[in-house]
Amino acid sequence: MSTPTSAHKGAGTKNDSAKFGASFAPSITLNLSQNKTTNNGGGGRRGGSVPAQGGHGGNSQGLLPPPEFTSPADVRNYCNHLRAVMVSVSFEVSMGAEILKAVLSTVPDPQGRIGGSKARAWRVSRKLTKAADSAAAAAKNAAATYAHFQQQYEEEINRVRHRARPPQGPRMNWTQQ
């Protein structure tokens, strides 16, 4: 059976919550999925699948597809993947900036100024907020890249698109009787 005093065993310790205020600092994890695709339609030029670019380790290889722009679909897929990754990164970094600001604002100001701890926390977390804004801008630019690609190469895309359609055969007209 526990007594009320045993539940508050550490109440008189150095890290008393009344001294520093309540804090909330959840752990942030960034989970990125890796979708591997193999391009075997290279016509034998590269022997099927493409080796990893750069060889910098496993972390940088799974974020984006390889930059092989051999078709409009490759351009679209690359831009869509880049946009999706950057939107996700933007949300994660923005959340991290808010959490950092909240945690740092609980640290007392050394000079005891009113609002000094919040001002210091804002100045530090502002850089992460700018990084989140830059990631969001990168996502917008990735989407704009594909839109601009479609505008600039509309003639070539339409020429192939019309040729790729199956020829129209005779159709039954059920309204003529």
Overall mean confidence score, pLDDT = 74
Count the strands?
0
Low-confidence stretches: 4-13, 15-23, 40-60
Our count of helices gives 5
The chain-level structural class is: mainly alpha
Beta-strand share of residues: under 5%
Computed CA radius of gyration, to the nearest angstrom: 28 Å
Shape type: elongated
**End-to-end distance, in Å?**
93 Å
What is the succession of H and E elements? HHHHH
Sheet of most strands: none
State the share of residues found in helices, binned by percent: 40-55%
Secondary-structure map with pairings?
Layout: H1 4-7, H2 17-20, H3 72-104, H4 116-152, H5 154-164
Explain briefly what this protein structure is.
This protein is mainly α. The chain has helices at 4-7, 17-20, 72-104, 116-152, 154-164. It contains 5 helices and no strands.
Describe the structure in your own words:
- This protein is mostly helical and 177 residues long.
- 50% of the residues lie in helices and 0% in strands.
- The longest helix is centred in the C-terminal third of the chain and has 37 residues, at 116-152.
- The model is unreliable at 4-13, 15-23 and 40-60 (pLDDT under 50).
Key terms:
177 residues; mainly alpha; elongated
